[in-house]
Amino acid sequence: MAISRRLFVGAVAASSTSFALAAHSGTANAAPAAAAASAPPVEPYYRIPVTTSDTPEELVAKAARVRPTERQITWQRLEKTAFLHFGVNTFTGLEWGTGDEDPDVFQPAGLDTDQWARALRDGGFRLAILTVKHHDGFVLYPSRHTRHSVVSSSWQDGRGDVLRSFADSMRRHGIKVGVYVSPADENQYLHGVYANGSARTAHTVPALVEGDDRAGEELRTFELQATDYGAYMLNQLYEVLTEYGPIDEVWFDGAQGRIPPDKVERYDWDSWYELVRTLAPDASIAVSGPDVRWVGNEGGLAREDEWSVVPVKEKDYGRTDYALHYEAADQGSRAALVEAQPLAQYLQWWPAECDVSIRPGWFYHADQQPKTVEQLTDIWLRSVGRNSVLLLNIPPDQQGRLPDADVTVLREFHERTGRELPQDLARSARAWGDGRRHGRAVDGDPDTAWTAPAPAKGTLTVDLGRDRTVDRIRLAEDVRQGQQVESAVVEARTDGGWERIAEVGTIGASRILALPAPVTARQWRLRILGSRDAASIAAFELHRSRV
User: Which residues pair with 133 in a beta bridge?
Assistant: First the structure.
């Protein structure tokens, strides 16, 4: 994935009205009423149009009205997700396969997906994403639409199904299931399907093949626009989304095959999204997708001030791209909204995901070692602690197990983050100040909040009952009310009066502040210095770390 992401030229999003054709329930000739009933829900505040005539004040007012979907809120609260890169590359030593590998090279003789699940559970993960297909095109389940898969390996006599084993194990251990299906496909290029220049036409999905075991069944079918390769992807997505239980995340990148530049495949994003939204309505689509964006690097690091509301532009079959460059240091401030205005078409809730591998490579290599607990903790503070979700890759080895060294680091990393934020000293403390419902910022409930009285104003004070020593602070907005805070400070009342302890720009869903030195005080306060609309603070937590 590391190589593929460097070819990534912008993440993707689509409004609920930009999909190709409505899905049909039952057969391709189902009544329009049935199609309407299965259409994705309208989410009017997830993206708001902007124009070049909007004033800076109007841009800010629109940004203040953008709201996340429930799907996005659920995704954000995971805080960290596991990624498992596994396939023929695990056995060839490559990071990007060629597509002409002998499938028999895939021989995970000791495959133990329950071991994966136990390690991830003990590492604090609640969702894991498997590379069902990487850029080489090798598929980890027995697809009806290609022989470049586990069926052509002598492993388990061609009857192996890694996806089945993965999904069953994850659910058995209380972990949600995600799938990564690479848009790029070197094998299908070799077969003249990928990037063959075919026009988009209407395709019935699923397309039954000779001897198809689904023949005669009452299948839910779709009529969707796609190229030859786009239809191939649709048929595989249909298999994955209908035969392996509930899928909670579908992960695409924007990789193009390593092929001649005049052979670019224009991906049928709108049709792919339509299929996912209908068959897996609760699944977030990342990072070339409408729900989640790539943070812009593969080091797992968010910006100091990471906005979830960003300016975007739409192109290519419902694809929504950054209006600013994906590596821009500022994606959503007032200045960024103005800078993006010549290209921006919408302001969209598009939160950042920070991806990084526990090892130097995305696939397992025997000569590589995992990052240390200290390195991972620093990444966690600069991703989860900066209004983002951490996507951590842990690649299985050639036996089909997570390496013991990685498993140990995962468990210790989870224990370490627990020691970073142990008991919340402000929980249920006496609270007062401006605005309404002061106690809701310290009640431990992410769905309740203190509401400041107005933009750029509001002070919340808490009394801990006695002097307590603090070196970690966690702040969170109630993002159901948008992301509003632009500037705030935390102060403690010491012998010299109120002393500024920390300052922040954005807060968002979670902002973790590690103080340079512990501070002891009984009374603490949060002052909002700037916001787009009245701030809603769901968490004002004070901690003494145990590290």
Answer: 139, 181
**Among 529, 432, 438, which residue's Cα sits nearest to residue 484?**
529
Beta-sheet pairing, 293-294 with 352-357? parallel
Q: What is the DSSP letter of 108?
A: -
Minimal CA–CA distance to 169: which of 128, 220, 203, 217?
Answer: 128
Cα dihedral 18→21→22→26 (10° resolution): -150
Residue ranges of E strands in 145-211: 176-181, 201-205
Q: How far apart are CA 114 and CA 130, in angstroms?
A: 14
Instruction: Assess contact for 519 and 471: CB atoms under 8 A.
Output: yes
Question: Per the structure block, which two tokens stand in for 255?
Answer: 């990789």
Six-digit token string for 511: 């902002």
Name 184's Cβ contacts closer than 8 Å, sequence gap at least 6.
Answer: 4, 135, 194, 255, 256, 257, 265
Task: List 309's β-bridge partners, or say none.
Answer: 349
DSSP state at residue 109: T
Q: How far apart are CA 436 and CA 458, in angstroms?
A: 10
Q: pLDDT tens, position by position, for the chain (547 residues)?
A: 443 332 322 333 333 333 333 333 333 333 333 333 334 444 568 999 999 999 999 999 999 999 999 999 999 999 999 999 999 999 999 999 999 999 999 999 999 999 999 999 999 999 999 999 999 999 999 999 999 999 999 999 999 999 999 999 999 999 999 999 999 999 999 999 999 999 999 999 999 999 999 999 999 999 999 999 999 999 999 999 999 999 999 999 999 999 888 889 999 999 999 999 999 999 999 999 999 999 999 999 999 999 999 999 987 898 878 999 999 999 999 999 999 999 999 999 999 999 999 999 999 999 999 999 999 999 999 999 999 999 999 999 999 999 999 999 999 999 999 999 999 999 999 999 999 999 999 999 999 999 999 898 899 999 999 999 999 999 999 999 999 999 999 999 998 899 999 999 999 999 999 999 999 999 999 999 999 999 999 999 999 999 9
218, burial (CB in 10 Å: exposed 0-12, middle 13-18, buried 19+)? exposed
**For residue 1, which of 382, 270, 392 has the smallest C-alpha distance?**
392
9 preceded by a cis bond (ω within 30 of 0): no
The residue behind tokens 């512990």 is 518
Question: Hey, what amino acid is at 216?
Answer: G
Spatial distance between the Cα atoms of 149 and 147, rounded to a whole number of angstroms: 5
Residue listed under structure tokens 């194990």: 169
CA distance 81 to 114: 17
Token pair, residue 180, equals: 């990564």
Cα separation, 540 vs 505, whole angstroms = 15
**Overall residue count recorded for the chain in this entry:** 547
